[in-house]
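Let's see one such:

===
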Amino acid sequence: MKVLPSDITFRELLDRGAQPIPVQEAEVACFLIHHSGGSAASFYPLIGHLPENWRSLAVELPGRGASMGRGHCHSTAEVVERLIPAVLAQGAERIAVFGHSLGALVAYELVRELERRGVAPVWLGVSGSPAPQLVAGRRLGRRDLWSRERLVAFLRDLGGTPEEMLAVPDVVDYMVSVLRGDLRVVDTYEHVDGPPLATPISVYSGDADPMAGTAQLAGWRERGRGAVDIRTWPGGHFYLFDHVESFTESLVADVRSAVRQAAGAAPEKKGAEL
């Protein structure tokens, strides 16, 4: 895979005034990838709930926030091309990756590429998304080609966007532009079959999420070599922000379980290499 110069940025999820821990001292570097129409700021509600000895880095994809003028990525492959060098440049010994909705597809493809490069993360968490091999079958068309009015209705139906924001034309124009670019990435995604991931996978969802039903979530079990746990909370597509404390508690427990699992497997791996 050709690597493009990265214009991906990260926002550290820290309490005000706190200093980031040096990456060499961090238990894990956890990269969090936002949903369609979202940004790194989407994960600000998690601040204060993630461990202080983690580097918790919220990804900001091009086309919004500080990188608003740089143009959107057009495919998951392009996102991963740009994300790989930014992730590896952090120099973390242990990497965990979490993605919600669009971010789940990106996280999955990112972990696939990291495994191909021999830099397997310790954990992958996916949320609010069908399994990648089922995404194409769920489509009702190219949503990025929808009218402005239809995209606003889509935002309203999903929830998670304050109604007062949808009443400000300039704000709506910005949100629709970002959402349209992201939906192009999702709605042109085609899963390329390959071996299941060696990286442990955790799957999270709202029990009333219209974007990811029970059968679509169960499909993630085909994407991992080991057991793939699926956990749900009450709520819709943005359930995690309604249950920040219990959601983050589960995420942290799953990451730490995977870290222990990786540490236990490390001596066997080293011996095999000798």
Observations:
- The mean pLDDT is 89.
- The CA atoms of residues 47 and 233 lie 20 Å apart.
- The chain has seven helices and seven strands.
- The longest helix spans residues 244-273.
